[in-house]
What we know:
seven-stranded antiparallel sheet; 11 helices; about 35% helix; globular; transposition; zinc
Amino acid sequence: MLTNYVYKLQPNVTQSHEMVRWIDMLRSHYNWCLNDRISQYNQKFIQGDYCDIRTKAEACPISCFVSKNGASGEPWKQDNQNTIVPMGEYCLLPYDLNNLPYSGKTPRRSVGDIQITALPVLKVARPWYAEIDSTVLQQNVKRLDTAYENFFNGNGFPKFKNRSNFTSFTYQVGFKVSGNKIYLPKLGWMRFYDSRPIPPGFVIKAATVRKRQDGWYISVRIEDKTVPDYVPLPLSEVNKVIGCDLGIVKLIHLSDGHQIDNPKFATNKKTRRILKVRQRRVSQKKKNSNNQKRASRAVGRLHKKIADKRQAYQWEIADAIVSRKVDAIGVEHLNIAGILRRCKVKIDDNTGRFLPNGQSRKKYLNRAISDASWNELILKIDYLAAKQGKIVVKINPKNSSIECRNCGYIDKASRDNEKFICSQCGHHEHADIGAAKTIRDRVIELIEYQKVHGDCVEPADKTAKRPKKRKEKSARSTLSKRVEPGNPKSKGENPETGIQEDIA
Ligand SMILES: [Zn+2]
């Protein structure tokens, strides 16, 4: 079994400064690698010269190549373990397929491998990188690999990192723990708050050091292969189900009639006020002064405190839901990014000016939704449920709150905030608890279906996901669209055929 334990570190001043420096260097290395992959993707070999297809300018030679399946640049693993070819030199040689420099028997190298092999070159050119532990540097490249992997699986394109979203580095080997001290290579022994003992039999596989607003934390990944993973209950053995409907006014409505409060940690009146005051203090201080830095640290600490409170509360209620006498918990399958998406821009055809589109109203709702952080809560419920041998079933919540539970009539007018009165038959109940019950019933329906038809088939009724309709793109959205390197879809190519489609 693999799990993570987090401890707070107590570095001394030198170590703390050193770690800040490392993070700065690693961030710039990460951004360099990302830029390298992007510019390589945009380079084409035309008439004996490399040229950037975006700017049509002469481009630097390739040092790596990004594609889903392989890499070029230094594409073949070397047969004879030669010393590493200096960067920039091997790139200049266009590969003649009949006269390959290497036999071609060995497998192609991934772009991550190429960039990892280039690390010693980096250390020669910029000696201060040699002060960083080598596994940390390697993990830094692998982090970008993971970002690309996520992208190829349908998530967003890897972003360039700044100080606020690049705050950690990872060790793969070399650390030791003794009592309340941990040894980190090239940083030395460091004390930490030994808040929970590592269970006997577990070995540390990796350690990630992270800077947060109130100090440094270390997250150790521990593994014991003899301990089995948590196995979720098979659907066919589920007997009792509870449905959860997520909301803003109340965080959760349960199908047994219970409601759980939403304390709105970041968006309640008091916190909003404190945040506003503290942010004003930052903006009123002299720019880049020590006073301003101190004031912005205070804002950061407040955000950290809010996040910590939310975490604690969510664990508490997740535990309360999971410890009920049920076998399965039905939750909504939500597309939060879709819910938070900005309203479509409206433009006056005659004047070309922007018209009100309701975004300023939606802003406050979006903040409340982010504050509730439903996805985080569902993850916690999922984790705790697996621990107790229970299962979480995600179900399509479509129409769950406007469908009559008596006659099945779907009408938006039936719902008036939390009251539900059916416009067809007059049936009335609490709208959200009704929705929770509908979710529960849909889970039961799914389970019944799978008991009859086997586990692998999904019902083709309303709970199944419908294929998405292709939306017409507005003029603005095509204008601002970025060409995303390595993504066959981003340039309007058909991913199956690789043929350019005309999307304009
Ligand atoms: Zn009805």
